[in-house]
Amino acid sequence: MNNTKFIGYHGTIKDKADKIKRTNFTVNFKHVGWLGTGVYFFDEDYDLALDYAKRVHKGRITKVLRGELDVPPGEVFDCTDDNYKKAFHKYREKLQKDLIEKHNVNLKVGNSNDFDGKVYNFIYRKKGYTLFRAETYTFSEVDDNYGFPPSRVPNGIELCLKQPRYIIKKDIV
User: Fold this and answer.
1) Could you give the C-alpha distances from 45 to 11, 95, 136, in angstroms and in order?
2) Each residue of 3-40: pLDDT tens digit?
3) Which SUPFAM superfamilies match (predicted)?
């Protein structure tokens, strides 16, 4: 069976983009994003990656990297598909029950995205998926400047890759 290929765009500052191009992406295991811990890309969306980088790194020179991802079959957890959405919520419920019943834990999280990221990490540990794909909403500059909450309607698709070794090519575009 053939691997699953994706084109992803990653926005960051120029110095980091240059370093990633020379070496590779690294995973910050202390950061849990909406799709868990990993390297984030916008699925075939250069503009959203550029807008994100400009918003997050205001006043700095930003660049966008284009990555070609080649992921083995069976290692993609694609929440743009209804079956995976249902599976996600089953794992979420299992994690909730495990935390409450077995460990008597009252988990406090900063927001729902933080807990969802922990659920994706749980799925990664339990099932070995290495790429998570989901529709997401990425804040705009207007959201930030005027304090608007995130929309519940997605404006893009993000990829979270747990294993950078599946990035077979990367270029600054």
Assistant:
1) 10, 32, 12
2) 899 999 999 999 999 999 999 999 888 888 999 999 99
3) ADP-ribosylation
